[in-house]
Amino acid sequence: MITSELPVLQDSSNESGAADTVSLSVSVSELEDPTDTKGKKKRGRPGRPPAANKKPRKSPAEKATGGAKGRKANGVPQTNGEGGDPVTLFEVVRMGKSAMQSVVDDWIESYKQDRDIALLDLINFFIQCSGCKGTVRIEMFRNMQNAEIIRKMTEEFDEDSGDYPLTMPGPLWKKFRYNFCEFICVLIRQCQYSIIYDEYLMDTVISLLTGLSDSQVRAFRHTSTLAAMKLMTALVNVALNLSIHQDNTQRQYEAERNKMAGKRANEKLELLLQKRKELQENQDEIENMMNSIFKGIFVHRYRDAIAEIRAICIEEIGVWMKMYSDAFLNDSYLKYVGWTLHDRQGEVRLKCLKALQNLYTNRELFPKLELFTNRFKDRIVSMTLDKEYDVAVEAIRLITLILQGSEDALSNEDCENVYHLVYSAHRPVAVAAGEFLHRKLFSRHDPQAEEELAKRRGRSSPNGNLLRMLVLFFLESELHEHAAYLVDSLWESSQELLKDWECMTELLLEEPVQGEEVLSDRQESSLIEVMVCTIRQAAEAHPPVGRGTGKRVLTAKERKTQIDDKNKLTEHFIMALPMLLSKYQADSEKVANLLQIPMFFDLDVYSAGRMEKHLDALLKQIRLVVEKHIETDVLEACSKTYSILCSEEYTIMNRVDIARSQLIDEITDRFTHSVEDLLQEAEEADDDDIYNVLSTLKRLTAFHNAHDLTRWDLFGSCYRLLKAGIEQGAMPEQIAVQALQCSHYSILWQLVKITEGTPSKEDLVALRRVVKSFLAVCQQCLSNVNTPVKEQAFMLLCDLLMVFSHQLVSGGREGLEALVFNPDSTLQNELLTFILDHVFIDQDDENQSMANKIEALHKRRNLLAAFSKLIIYDIVDMPAAADIFKHYMKYYNDYGDIIKETLSKTRQSDKILCAKTLILSLQQLFNELHQDQGPTLDRTSHTRQRHQGVGRQTHTPTHLHLDQIKTREAVATLDGIEFAFKYQNPHVPALHSYLEKFMSESMSERREDVWLPLISYRNSLLTGGEDGDRMSVTSGASSKTSSIRSKKGRTPIHKSKRIEGGSESSVEASWLRGNDSLQTPGALTTPQLTSTVLRENPRQAADTHLPDHDSEPGSENDYVHNRGLMEDDAEPIFEDVMMSSRGQLEDMNEEFEDTMVIDLPPSRNRRERAELRPDFFDSAAMIEDESVSRTHTQPCSGKPV
Prior knowledge:
Strand content: under 5%
Radius of gyration: 42 Å
Shape: flat
């Protein structure tokens, strides 16, 4: 057994703060006589004789080097002379060319021959797996304590790189990690019957891993913790097997003892008793080993400063609890997982949730998890809103598992916290929430009872009640515009229900039978909206906009499903849609949704299935809808449906085109007559005349958007309406807006015809005349009293100026030169004035709702973006942007992104002109400030600070471009000559030559006051710069001594660059460099050491930390000192190697060894005598081990890596 010399059995409450060292030394007699077991019988598997006559196999080193070449001198493996084959255990595992079973068997054979040399191989294996270049020799193994060995190995680390095998990238090292873990598991599995009980191998290995896990070096801690946790997992498996053997042996013993005296075999009873005794002894030793690993390594490392180490511990304890639930699935171990749910790192929280998922999957374990669920349920529910999406997804899945095990475990409030996540923009979160919603709402019904009820009611589908429930949930969520998100969330879990379109149409079309509730108007609207979303999801087979990064490529199976779903919905709704439109044709909202369905049809079904009569029925219903409604969204839906049905690729095009032409003819005739009547009556027109014109014009405008209606010459009538409105000033604003829009569509369709064909000169002249007249009308409308008319005219002006700009002739279309329009200065000024009057305004109407404010802001942003495009594409002169740039800071929240993008694009097109525009904007700001405050400026005023902010944001070379050579001209234009005075020690010839390019003779000869500073500076340059320091033009000129000092302070790299690059280019570059680039970087931040030696006194730490009263119930400190241990928003709690305990358990009376000993469950004959375990979650009666709060430190003088 592991002796008390090991630190894992020592009291960790050492008052001096230093832990006892782990000893790896053994006596000389043990090294000389490996068969000596100090008089104790060596236990093995009962009934299995030792393989004494078995021929030993060669070790991996002997296989690789060929017999004698693989021998080791002084315990150090010798490398192969050729250097091609692996000779050490580390190399064999790293290469992974041999089966792990054979590698372990070879090591076991070498251990049987010479256990010290074999064990030394294993020690060096762990050292080398940590990335250490050192090797433990036999002399070190015999004469040095483990602390000295670890310190020696620490000094052998390669300090140039922080990588080690477990963290190195690449597939080779990923495979190594797997091989490393597999090697440990196979080693224990192969040694489980004899070697692990020899009181030598496991004692030495556990002692080594315990010492390494307490090292300052991250590589040692990480590697040894992983090895120890995998070792513990293998031992748990051995303990489980021993428990099973004990139960079987006990059952055989009871059966034999219950036989009659004549048939009872006493020899067999004695053998069974002896076997049971040996199994119990083996179990006791396994318990001792697991206690050593758990108390010596786990309780320290589960709170390590490195998140990956903490994650390893939590992952493995989850494996133990699932593998051997009788021993580990209790409050004593669950509390570690519960506490770590508060970890700051998402990686660790994720491991906790996955470990719990493995437990909650088994419903038989729910009784043992009941107390844990009650204590930590709130924390798990709150993690559904975790900032790490992966953690949130796993938390929702865990909540779903809890719901499946016990519906009473979650309250209504808990469920509601998960419900709303189906509308999350992150699809994995939404899908997980959809699975929860499906389990909660749709999994409790009885399918057979639903089918019988549906048959009695004459329904073909049993999903009627479920669809009603879905609609009710959608209505209660009050997010009606997010039906597509709800459908997408439920698509994977409730696809069968969502594709039951027959049941949906039954609920909408048929009258409710006895016992059914009537759908309300809101429920019908919601059901139609959900139905349309399910149709779109099935036909397009991708998430809605806002979920996912884009359309992914469908697999062959998904593509087949998509085609089948599209055919199914087409065949159903070809017949059902006309009936639905007929029933709801008076409801604009329902009709607008229903008219979206044809765009997902497979229109070939009309011809292939001889369903033209259903097409005629659909066209008839659409015509009736057009005649009944004038709402824009309904008319646009009708227009889009006609456009889809008129596609030339389908044979039904002619039939649809005839119906569409007949409809347009009738509407156009009514429109023409209505216009004539309105114009004749003029001011005497009544409401009916206005309504007739407006209703027909709305229909024509909606259709003109998607259809070419130029042959009906709608522009003429619309132009007459607009001219009459301008002249008379009495045209209703809605008619003017619709007339402007319809005329705009007519011009665009005429342009499409010209660009697609070979236009004649007459066609170009005619279109130019139309465009010119329409632009004049729009310009006149800018002064209209009605704001909607002005906004419509402004947007159309910007759009048409973009379309008919100089870019129209690009791409080999020089023949369209006659159609290019360039706005004159008058039009540009009017557009700019409109922007200043309608965009840069303060809207502080308290009576206006937030939705209306957002809509108004969106409209103003569109206006500004339309005008900014004219500036960017050089249609409007760039200086006009000065009036926009000056509002950058004041309206940053509303239009900052648009102004910044405009500045960026204009800078790319013309840097110098952009610089002048920025100067102009700053001049305007200064003049406005001067007018407001007079000659004496208040430097503390908010307005001045805002103006300075504009200067900082725009008046810097950085905003021009980072390339200083390219921006030299723009910088000179932007900052003028004062830019030269900002820098110390200018290179005189370079500055003088550059200054001469910008200074004319008139400047130097006139000698006006304004040019005196310039002339003085030029004269100082002509004299060679000797008097430069005496002039007051540069306030920060440095002395020669400081210059020499600065040169000495430069690094050799900078010196070489200055010599190679030449003095002139370097000085010019520094002259153009910004102020920030002249600042020397601060001192590098010293990395935090992870030494356990530098840890503060626990009592002092406890005194300096104030208690946190906002601790979340269920965390570790909630049961200790009511402190939030791992809250996301708390200060860092991991100080050095381990998280600081802050003296949380200083005054506890119970010791760790008395409370946290792994006690494997007794065999069935002893379970009746087993005592109940204490409740480790009960804060009143909690018995906590001190090693959780006091970290086990290891003094080490080696160099931390």
